[in-house]
């Protein structure tokens, strides 16, 4: 499992880091619309100023290159961590920190470009917005049916998987017979993919409704430029919708015949790589559009100061909630908008909650499981009393050996090798309550309140000792 995780993370993170580096730190800044989030302009291409910008971009690219190389080295180092839990937590933290670190030189470049603007006397005119009235609101490229159709198809396959999970139809096990946990997993994964597709519909519509940008005093040029940009975004939206749908269809068909962990990881990897490939195509097409439609107006639209570090938009004079990003793909939130502020708070809470969850999982994985008999109950403890089972109401307990041979499949709970806790399917015999450390080998099993329990302590000796005491109290109840 650890090896699969390492392979998947490297397959995703290496191309992601390379995309950030090559698209956000280009050598030919003169051809770009923005330089580190600052609007490119004719004044920047004058001889002395251009030399200064060459130095800024070269230094930032060098720093980003060093961070990129260090990232690859750290990825290899993470693969050498033997403990699966620590490995997983380290990858989770690394993904976030690596993306932030790769953006630091860009943020530095943004600050230096703003300083250069001030030296040149290029002052932003805050709150000034220009609109081409002739074509305002009339340029759209997205045909909503093209993004709804693949989602309808996704929903059909998800419903089929759901009906199979509920036992209404026999979709699973077409060849060799699939187990209940596999069809439930298939249903859950297809549902998650469908949710992503449905969430992308309003995002695509929002991007198609962006305010038209003014690059010329000729309305036809403005219309063609904005139509080309929105056509590129619409094509990307439709492409992502079909990637999502094809992933669901192929996944369900394949999982009807096999359901290995390698297959699940492979689907996630191929899916992410396909999305990244789509982003690359979008970037390249956008570059072609920007080269073809150069700014041809004396109108100076400058809101650079409203972009914090070139990435976060904050403009109290702009009533829009969403604006096109200057760095990256898609849209970002106007943090000055009331809804934008609420979104920012939620994002921070999610980030903090994620780190707290990772810390909790890390601590939990290092906290031993223990069993004890107390006040006529069997008590399962790990950081807290997870289960308290009355001895008087349970069926006769038995002692099992070789717990590692149990065929465990999680329905809900915790399954970090070697500790398993929660509701599991055991040897395909329905749901059971599991509280096992597989390193102890011995385990206690009994039935209580219509469910089967499998329990063990930190060691085999502890488990046997608790079993003998439990059996004695059960006989004397």
Summed over residues and divided by their number, the pLDDT gives a mean of 83
Q: Main sheet: which strands, in order across?
A: 10-14-15-13-12-11
What's the count of strands?
15
Radius of gyration: 29 Å
> Which range best describes the helical content: under 10%, 10-25%, 25-40%, 40-55%, 55-70% or over 70%?
40-55%
Helix-and-strand structural type:
alpha+beta
H/E order of the elements? HEEHHHHHHEEEEHEEEEEEEEEH
Low-pLDDT segments: 174-178
Shape verdict? elongated
Give the amount of beta strand, in percent.
5-15%
Distance between the termini: 44 Å
Provide a count of the helices. Answer: 9
Quick structural gist:
Helices cover 54% and strands 14% of the residues. It has helices at residues 2-24, 47-79, 84-120, 144-165, 180-208, 219-255, 261-292, 338-365, 460-475, and strands spanning 34-35, 38-39, 307-308, 312-313, 322-324, 331-333, 370-374, 377-381, 385-390, 398-400, 408-416, 419-426, 431-437, 443-448, 451-455.
Describe this structure in words.
The chain has 477 residues and is α+β, with helices and mostly antiparallel strands. 54% of the residues lie in helices and 14% in strands. The protein has nine helices and 15 strands. A six-stranded mixed β-sheet has the order 10-14-15-13-12-11. It has a three-stranded antiparallel β-sheet with strand order 7-8-9, with helices on one face. Strands 1-2 form a two-stranded antiparallel ribbon. Strand 7 (370-374) and strand 8 form a beta hairpin. Helix 1 (2-24) packs parallel to helix 7 and helix 4 (144-165) runs parallel beside helix 6 (219-255). The longest helix has 37 residues, at 84-120. 27% of the residues are buried. The model is unreliable at 174-178 (pLDDT under 50).
């Amino acid at each position: 499992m650890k090896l699969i995780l390492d392979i998947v993370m490297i397959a995703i993170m290496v191309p992601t880091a390379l995309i950030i580096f090559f698209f956000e730190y280009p050598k030919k800044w003169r051809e770009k619309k923005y330089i580190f989030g600052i609007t490119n302009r004719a004044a920047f291409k004058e001889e002395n100023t251009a030399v200064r910008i060459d130095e800024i971009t070269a230094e930032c690219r060098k720093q980003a290159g060093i961070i990129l190389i260090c990232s690859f080295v750290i990825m290899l180092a993470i693969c050498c961590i033997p403990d699966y839990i620590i490995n997983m937590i380290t990858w989770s933290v690394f993904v976030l920190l690596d993306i932030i670190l790769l953006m630091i030189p860009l943020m530095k470049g943004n600050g230096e470009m703003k300083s250069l603007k001030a030296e040149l006397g290029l002052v932003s005119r805050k709150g000034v917005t220009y609109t081409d009235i002739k074509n305002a609101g009339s340029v759209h490229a997205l045909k909503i049916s093209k993004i709804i159709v693949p989602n309808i198809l996704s929903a059909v396959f998800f419903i089929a998987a759901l009906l199979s999970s509920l036992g209404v139809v026999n979709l699973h096990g077409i060849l060799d017979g699939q187990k209940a946990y596999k069809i439930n997993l298939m249903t859950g994964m297809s549902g998650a993919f469908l949710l992503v597709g449905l969430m992308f519909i309003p995002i695509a519509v929002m991007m198609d409704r962006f305010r038209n940008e003014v690059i010329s005093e000729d309305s036809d040029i403005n219309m063609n430029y904005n139509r080309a940009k929105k056509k590129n975004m619409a094509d990307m939206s439709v492409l992502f919708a079909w990637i999502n749908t094809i992933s669901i269809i192929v996944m369900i068909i394949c999982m009807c015949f096999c359901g290995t962990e390698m297959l699940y990881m492979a689907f996630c990897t191929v899916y992410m790589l396909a999305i990244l490939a789509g982003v690359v195509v979008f970037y390249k097409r956008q570059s072609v559009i920007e080269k073809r439609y150069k700014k041809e107006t004396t109108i100076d639209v400058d809101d650079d100061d409203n972009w914090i570090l070139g990435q976060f938009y904050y403009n109290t004079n702009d009533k829009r909630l969403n604006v096109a990003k200057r760095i990256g793909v898609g849209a970002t939130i106007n943090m000055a908008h009331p809804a934008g502020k609420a979104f920012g708070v939620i994002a921070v809470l999610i980030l903090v909650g994620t780190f707290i969850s990772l810390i909790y999982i890390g601590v939990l994985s290092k906290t031993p499981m223990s069993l004890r008999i107390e006040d006529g109950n069997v008590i399962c403890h790990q950081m807290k009393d997870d289960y308290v089972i009355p001895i008087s109401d349970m069926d006769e307990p038995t002692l099992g050996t070789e717990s590692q041979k149990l065929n465990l499949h999680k329905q809900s709970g915790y399954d970090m090798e070697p500790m398993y806790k929660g509701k599991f399917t055991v040897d395909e015999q329905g749901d059971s309550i599991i509280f096992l450390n597989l390193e102890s080998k011995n385990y206690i099993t009994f039935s209580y309140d219509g469910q089967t329990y499998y329990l063990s302590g930190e060691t085999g000796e502890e488990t046997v000792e608790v079993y003998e005491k439990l059996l004695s109290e059960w006989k004397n109840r």
